[in-house]
């Protein structure tokens, strides 16, 4: 109802009702209700971001009170409580760990870290570490995936890290879309023009001694002529049709005005984990004594090939030994769902090894049956390794996986194609150099070893190194093509992630996102002044290890530079930036409720390419808006000119208010609606983004509208005058006009 055009029509309705013109009153009221109800239905689902954040808290939590373990409601947890944490628990509050046994916590929703974080109780090395590096803390809203622990609650409610995000959400203000601003300006111009013309016509009529009541009727007719009644309805309908088209391309619009904002998007700030990447760890490289092979395929689907020096190869005996050991010392396993997709049960790192083994023809279930596990030494944050003992025929063999430097330190030999050989210092240096090279390629490296004739006491001494496995959360296959299309369309893509800088830079390089090569960390961003950030922001393409506040700051800085910003994300940590951005884009599959509620658009397939499809639809919608605005407004200029010209010439009113309404709806509104669903042009995504500040009304658009309007006025006024002069009645002349 705050739309200027709607307000003008409401005033016209009230005046018509006051003067007793029932048909006009009903006609205008129906149009107003039609436009308003359509918009209301589309935006009925109010934002629930804060409520969704509240619901993230665990309903109950196990705490120690009076020396006893008791279950209490999460809302009753207070600072000082000792929380007992177990696998599967949702953490109810921020806590400092005092006990940790193999404790791993999934923090992706809060920090963007793609793998569970190993927690420990040791004091931190620095006092200004980012959330993702605070390993002796657990945070409300995250999930315990492995192990157990205890922590002293240090913050609850709005004082927690999730609570701070809620606070930011409450203070973030969303701006109006470019088209909303343009239509508001159109409404104000039309309102002023209508009032001006009405005043001139009424005063001119009074000078000719016309009755005041008749002049007021003229005024209403003119106001109605000036206002394109169909415009709010056509805008709403065209957006709604655009929304339906977007759903077919896996983009669901939550707030209708956001549709056309997509068309002027100039920067897309994308989260990495789950958005540009699959959020599924994958082994990319195996390093044995003889060679390093690359493994194709991504995600948990066990299809892919081994390649060496660019050629496809079969897994060698060394690689099969390496993968067999890796599988036996892992607890994760793959499950095929009813729809044929593959899901991982267990730790993502172990899952990556199981999938790599399957690509080499090794089945975990069969290996577990053939070499049953007898004993195990579990992984701890202190040991940084896991060791298991298995029955292999009459022998007992130990297998271990863990941090390369730890495993290497416990090895005295390595496996080669000639058999086991002693490890000398030069061999150790070469292996560590391989580890460094893999790390520089952003691969997470595990070393794998074995020991034959082992006992539980000596299993981790004098082992034989089998090789290295390097893994990464791989980029989506379609991400590179989508980013190339963005670059052709003049849209910058920026990665903003909580992940490690090396990983972020490697993924960005792989998908063609990095052009200038500039990447900064959250700590570097923190050290930048607002002026420094404003001058550098056009060059920075990757932001790593960033916090929610950093994301919000980057989006704000880009907007201050005049950019129309789309922000994608799936975690709680993305919500403030999603809400602040001109168009917030949440992930429909992996996205948290919080991110969905804070966003204007949700991707149904979590596919970055769907954003580009949505941008194309948005651009098409804006082009169509321009077409029907030109058509509608030129018609209205013609009507105002016709009524004003006839009145100033001392002629009767050439159209009644109801006739004007009919023309505006039937012969203007319906063709305008047809224009609003015109298919997008072929070269739409080869053009630069439209400047949101330039608006719809460029010089050529205004010229066309004026030419069309003046021609309409001249033709109809000439017809009306001819009809009157040829002896027809006023009613006949009005009907012909």
Task: Produce the secondary structure layout.
Blueprint: H1 4-18, H2 22-42, H3 49-55, E1 60-65, E2 68-73, E3 82-86, E4 94-106, H4 108-111, E5 117-118, E6 137-138, E7 143-155, H5 161-171, H6 178-207, H7 212-226, H8 230-248, E8 251-253, H9 258-261, E9 267-270, E10 282-287, E11 292-295, E12 306-308, E13 311-313, H10 317-328, E14 333-336, E15 342-345, H11 348-359, H12 364-370, E16 373-377, E17 385-392, E18 395-402, H13 404-409, E19 411-416, E20 419-422, H14 425-440, E21 444-451, E22 463-472, H15 479-488, E23 492-496, H16 501-510, E24 518-521, H17 522-527, H18 530-536, E25 540-544, H19 548-560, E26 565-569, H20 575-580, E27 583-587, H21 593-598, E28 601-603, H22 608-648, H23 657-676, H24 699-725, H25 730-736
Helix pairs in contact: 1-2, 1-7, 2-8, 6-7, 6-22, 7-22, 7-23, 8-22, 8-23, 10-11, 15-22, 22-23, 22-24, 24-25
Write a short abstract of this structure.
The chain has 737 residues and is of the alpha+beta class. It contains 25 helices and 28 strands.
Q: What is the tally of helical segments?
A: 25
Helix percent reads 40-55%
Structural class: alpha+beta
Distance between the termini: 33 Å
Spans of at least 5 consecutive residues whose pLDDT stays below 50 are: 45-54
Q: Number of DSSP strands?
A: 28
- Could you tell me the strand content as a percent range? 15-25%
Question: What's the overall average pLDDT, rounded?
Answer: 85
Largest sheet: 11 strands, mixed
Radius of gyration: 34 Å
Shape type: elongated
């Amino acid at each position: 109802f705050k739309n200027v055009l709607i307000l003008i029509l409401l005033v016209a309705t009230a005046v018509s009702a006051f003067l007793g013109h029932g048909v006009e009153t009903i006609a205008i009221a129906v149009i107003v209700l039609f436009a308003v109800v359509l918009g209301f239905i589309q935006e009925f689902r109010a934002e629930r971001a804060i409520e969704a954040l509240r619901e993230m808290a665990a309903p109950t939590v196990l705490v120690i009170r009076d020396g006893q373990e008791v279950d209490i409601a999460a809302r009753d947890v207070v600072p000082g409580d000792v929380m007992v944490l177990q696998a599967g628990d949702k953490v109810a509050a921020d806590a400092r760990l005092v006990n940790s046994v193999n404790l791993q916590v999934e923090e992706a929703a809060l920090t963007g870290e793609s793998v569970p974080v190993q927690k420990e109780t040791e004091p931190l090395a620095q006092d200004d570490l980012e959330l993702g590096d605070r390993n002796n803390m657990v945070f409300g809203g995250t999930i315990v995936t492995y192990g157990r622990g205890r922590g002293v609650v240090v913050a609850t409610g709005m004082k927690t890290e999730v609570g701070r995000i809620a606070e930011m959400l409450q203070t973030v203000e969303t701006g109006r879309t470019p088209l909303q601003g343009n239509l508001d300006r159109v409404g104000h111009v039309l309102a002023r023009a209508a009032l001006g013309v009405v005043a001139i016509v009424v005063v001119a009529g009074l000078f000719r001694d016309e009755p005041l009541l008749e002049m007021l009727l003229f005024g209403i007719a003119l106001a109605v002529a000036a206002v394109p009644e169909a415009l709010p309805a056509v805008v709403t309908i065209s957006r709604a049709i655009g929304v339906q088209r977007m759903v077919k391309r896996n983009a669901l619009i939550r707030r209708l005005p956001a549709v056309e904002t997509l068309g002027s998007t100039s920067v897309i700030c994308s989260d990495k984990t789950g958005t540009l990447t699959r959020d599924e760890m994958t082994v990319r490289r195996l390093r044995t004594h003889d060679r390093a092979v690359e493994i194709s395929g991504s995600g948990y689907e066990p299809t892919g090939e081994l390649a060496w020096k660019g050629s496809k190869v079969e897994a060698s005996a060394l690689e099969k030994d390496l993968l067999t050991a890796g599988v036996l010392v892992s607890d994760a396993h793959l499950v095929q769902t009813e729809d044929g997709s593959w899901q991982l049960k267990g730790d993502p790192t172990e899952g990556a090894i199981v999938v790599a083994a399957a690509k080499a023809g090794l089945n975990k279930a069969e290996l577990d049956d053939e070499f049953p596990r007898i004993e195990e030494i579990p992984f701890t944050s202190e040991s940084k390794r896991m060791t298991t003992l298995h029955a292999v025929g009459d022998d007992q063999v130990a297998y271990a996986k863990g941090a390369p430097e730890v495993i290497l330190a416990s090895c005295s030999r390595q496996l080669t194609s000639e058999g086991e050989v002693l490890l000398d210092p030069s061999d150790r240096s070469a292996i560590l150099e391989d580890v460094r090279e893999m790390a520089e390629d952003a691969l997470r490296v595990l070393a794998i070893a074995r020991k034959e004739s082992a006992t539980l006491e000596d299993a981790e001494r004098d082992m034989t190194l089998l090789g290295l496995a390097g893994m990464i959360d791989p980029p989506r296959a379609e991400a590179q093509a989508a980013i190339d299309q963005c670059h052709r369309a003049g849209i910058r893509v920026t990665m903003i992630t909580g992940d490690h800088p090396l990983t972020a830079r490697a993924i960005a390089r792989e998908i063609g996102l990095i052009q200038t090569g500039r990447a900064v960390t959250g700590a570097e961003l923190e050290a930048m002044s607002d002026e420094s950030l404003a001058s550098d922001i056009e060059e920075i393409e990757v932001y790593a290890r960033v916090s929610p506040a950093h994301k919000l700051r980057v989006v704000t800085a880009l907007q201050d530079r005049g950019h129309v910003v789309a922000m994608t994300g799936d975690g709680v940590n993305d919500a403030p930036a999603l809400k602040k951005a001109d168009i917030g884009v949440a992930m429909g599959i992996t996205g948290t409720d919080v991110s969905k509620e804070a966003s204007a658009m949700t991707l149904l397939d979590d596919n970055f390419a769907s954003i580009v499809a949505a941008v194309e639809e948005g651009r098409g919608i804006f082009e169509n808006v321009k077409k029907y605005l030109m058509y509608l407004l030129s018609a209205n200029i013609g009507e105002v000119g016709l009524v004003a010209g006839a009145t100033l010439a001392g002629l009767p009113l050439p159209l009644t208010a109801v006739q004007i309404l009919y023309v505006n709806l039937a012969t203007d509104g319906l063709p305008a609606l047809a224009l609003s669903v015109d298919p997008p042009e072929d070269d739409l995504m080869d053009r630069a983004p439209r400047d949101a500040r330039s608006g719809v009304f460029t010089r050529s658009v205004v010229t066309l509208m004026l030419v069309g309007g003046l021609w309409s006025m001249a033709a109809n006024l000439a017809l009306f005058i001819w009809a009157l002069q040829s002896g027809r009645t006023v009613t006949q002349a009005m009907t012909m006009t």
